[in-house]
């Protein structure tokens, strides 16, 4: 039973939603709308600052169809910049300052960005004219609202995703699609939520969470931390009475595992980007009234196309977590390779149409034509799915080599091309196994991690490298990726839980990384450890040792031996100087500056 298209509001007006915030700023100008660390900002001040910056942007030529880069982390200034671009009528492109300069340069060039909104200390990261959002001269401009002249068919933002040709691609989203998303989001989950944002500004799922609390009447709380710290995040949830958090499942599980009681105020955990494990969340869901909202949708189609609400009353209805049903004004169909629709129950490619359909890839009509059947108005996701008799959608995997690791969508071909650019690499194949990236390399290069760090963001760098003389082949002569994956079976640790502190750390690493770890000098991050793994280890080590550790202590000691030495009883009685501790922590953080998979 294919879902019938729902009546579409015409037009879908983002300006109407912006007007809601402007009304809020007028009626309750002193109401706090954003909390970021120790800073807060009221509705009146936020609206005034955004209007002044929007006026300045219009004087610089920003208008409908013009893209503006935003190079800022989670902060009050970031939200001012986002609102200003939208009010000015332009479209924004989030740029993570933590990305390698080469990648940022490509993104700026590919999107044709002339302006980047940032702070003076970050301006050197961007090869474009920097606009200082903290410039005191902006305070002299009128704070009255500006006229944007934008229409529902104008672009709102473009998000860069991993590209199979070796370069990231920028998927654009229309204002009407985002307005449709916000209408559903606020109606489905409520307009008065206290929302915590822990995900990257460059992540597609983050965008709605910046706007929904402001435009709907809720509170926006921003985690300003640059590392994923379970204690800090759970502390924010508890202290601010957070009711909604949106992130990947991989980022949410550790919060539940560490301190489920801290999540007592949560009404909705909106999860997306990865399949959800019911066993990981069963205890938490059965003990309260919270719901998990499984959301599905590609960046190219405005983040969410289908959803399923999971709560203690329906945990076992399907035996898995389905994609669910379409949001209003979005159509999902299952088609064969010729784009003909197929009967319910049969496996095919999931295709999307309707209000969420984006504008394709910036300045890349050929790639857009391959993914968007523009004449038919549909997007080919490359995801395999089927529609069950009850109308619910079930995800069945990918049709190509695109994968999701910690919620980030990654084209393995992009990593392979980056590896192949090293002069000592003859051939490279990258696979995803149990949530980690593994590079198989034919060649002699020993500095591949450093090489990739100049070309790719940290979440795309494999944690394990296997050097080999050749590759297994399928009967038709192609690399047998399944055979490569079979070489990486999980190893259970045989070490006793009551062994030495070094043995217990190695055993814990093996459990977290799902493989045997024997080298006490190996670097945790080189073995495939991520910020989420480190956060879980932080909690486990505090339980194991009874010591009040800081997560920076772990960053500063990335080998099992250095960590064991630090945690040994003898070390616990030795007091290091504040300067020594600061030096170690700074060295560790510099070693692992990478975006969280929030």
Q: What separation lies between the terminal Cα atoms?
A: 35 Å
Strand order of the largest sheet: 2-1-10-9-11-12-13-14-15
Q: How many beta strands in the DSSP annotation?
A: 26
Annotated CATH architecture of the largest domain? 3-Layer(aba) Sandwich
Structural class: alpha/beta
Instruction: Kindly state the percentage of residues in helix.
Output: 25-40%
Inertia-based shape? globular
Number of domains: 4
Largest sheet: 9 strands, mixed
Average pLDDT rating:
87
Radius of gyration, CA atoms, in whole angstroms:
24 Å
CATH evolutionary superfamily of the largest domain: ANL, N-terminal domain
Q: Under the CATH scheme, which class of the largest domain? A: Alpha Beta
The low-confidence parts are: 1-10, 491-498, 572-598
- Find the CATH topology of the largest domain: Rossmann fold
Number of helices: 19
The percentage of residues in β strands lies in 15-25%
Written description of the protein model:
- The protein is of the alpha/beta class and 598 residues long.
- It folds into four domains: 38-150, Rossmann fold; 176-400, Rossmann fold (3-Layer(aba) Sandwich); 406-486, GMP Synthetase, Chain A, domain 3 (2-Layer Sandwich), CATH 3.30.300; 501-591, Orthogonal Bundle (Non-ribosomal Peptide Synthetase Peptidyl Carrier Protein, Chain A).
- It has 19 helices and 26 strands.
- The strands form six sheets. The protein has a nine-stranded mixed sheet, sandwiched between helices. Strands 16, 17, 19, 20 and 21 form a five-stranded antiparallel sheet that branches.
- Helix 2 (43-59) crosses helix 3 (76-88) and helix 5 (175-189) crosses helix 6 (207-216).
- Residues 1-10, 491-498 and 572-598 have low confidence and may be disordered.
């Amino acid at each position: 039973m294919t879902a019938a298209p729902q009546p579409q509001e015409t037009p879908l007006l983002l300006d109407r939603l912006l007007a809601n915030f402007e009304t809020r700023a007028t009626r309750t100008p002193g109401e706090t709308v954003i909390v970021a660390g120790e800073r807060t900002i009221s509705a009146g001040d936020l609206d005034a600052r955004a209007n002044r910056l929007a006026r300045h942007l219009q004087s610089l030529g920003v208008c409908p169809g013009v893209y503006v880069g935003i190079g800022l982390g989670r902060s009050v200034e970031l939200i001012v910049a986002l609102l200003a671009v939208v009010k000015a009528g332009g479209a924004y492109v989030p740029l993570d300052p933590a990305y390698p300069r080469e990648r940022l340069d490509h993104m700026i060039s590919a999107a044709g960005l002339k302006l980047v909104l940032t702070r003076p200390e970050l301006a050197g990261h961007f090869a474009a004219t920097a606009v200082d959002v903290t410039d005191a001269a902006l305070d002299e401009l009128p704070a009255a609202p500006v006229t944007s002249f934008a229409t529902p068919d104008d672009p709102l933002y473009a998000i860069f995703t991993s590209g199979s040709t070796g370069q990231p691609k920028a998927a654009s989203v229309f204002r009407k699609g985002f307005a449709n998303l916000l209408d559903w989001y606020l109606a489905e989950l409520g307009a008065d939520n206290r929302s915590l944002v822990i995900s990257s500004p460059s992540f597609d799922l983050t965008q709605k969470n910046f706007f929904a609390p402001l435009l709907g009447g809720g509170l926006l709380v921003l985690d300003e931390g640059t590392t994923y710290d379970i204690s800090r995040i759970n502390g924010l949830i508890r202290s601010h009475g957070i009711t909604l958090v949106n992130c990947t499942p991989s980022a949410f599980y550790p919060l539940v595992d560490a301190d489920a009681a801290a999540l007592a105020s949560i009404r909705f955990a909106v999860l997306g980007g990865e399949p959800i494990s019911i066993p990981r969340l069963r205890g938490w869901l059965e003990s309260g009234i919270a719901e998990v909202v499984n959301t599905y949708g590609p960046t190219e189609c405005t983040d969410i196309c289908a959803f399923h609400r999971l709560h203690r009353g329906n945990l076992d209805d399907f035996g898995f977590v389905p994609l669910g049903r379409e949001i209003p004004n979005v159509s999902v169909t299952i088609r064969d390779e010729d784009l003909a629709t197929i009967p319910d129950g049969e496996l095919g490619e999931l295709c999307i149409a309707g209000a969420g359909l984006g504008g394709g890839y910036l300045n890349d009509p050929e790639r857009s034509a391959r993914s968007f059947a523009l004449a038919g108005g549909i997007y080919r996701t490359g995801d395999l799915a089927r529609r069950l008799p009850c109308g619910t959608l079930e995800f069945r995997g990918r049709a190509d080599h695109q994968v999701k690791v910690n919620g980030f969508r990654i084209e393995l071909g992009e990593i392979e091309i980056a590896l192949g650019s090293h002069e000592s690499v003859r051939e490279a194949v990258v696979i995803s196994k149990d949530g980690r990236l593994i590079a198989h390399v034919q060649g002699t290069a020993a500095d591949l991690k450093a090489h990739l760090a100049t070309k790719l963001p940290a979440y795309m760098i494999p944690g394990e490298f296997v050097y080999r003389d050749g590759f297994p082949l399928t009967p038709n002569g192609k690399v047998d990726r399944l055979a490569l994956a079979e070489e990486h079976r999980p190893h259970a640790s045989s070490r006793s839980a009551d062994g030495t502190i070094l043995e217990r750390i190695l055993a814990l690493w093996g459990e977290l990384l799902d493989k045997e770890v024997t080298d006490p000098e190996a670097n945790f991050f080189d073995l495939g450890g991520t910020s989420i793994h480190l956060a879980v280890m932080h909690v486990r080590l505090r339980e194991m040792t009874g010591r009040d550790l800081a997560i920076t202590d772990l960053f500063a000691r990335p080998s099992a031996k250095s960590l064991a030495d630090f945690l040994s009883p003898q070390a616990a009685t030795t007091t290091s100087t504040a300067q020594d501790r600061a030096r170690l922590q700074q060295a560790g953080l510099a070693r692992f500056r990478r975006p969280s998979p929030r």
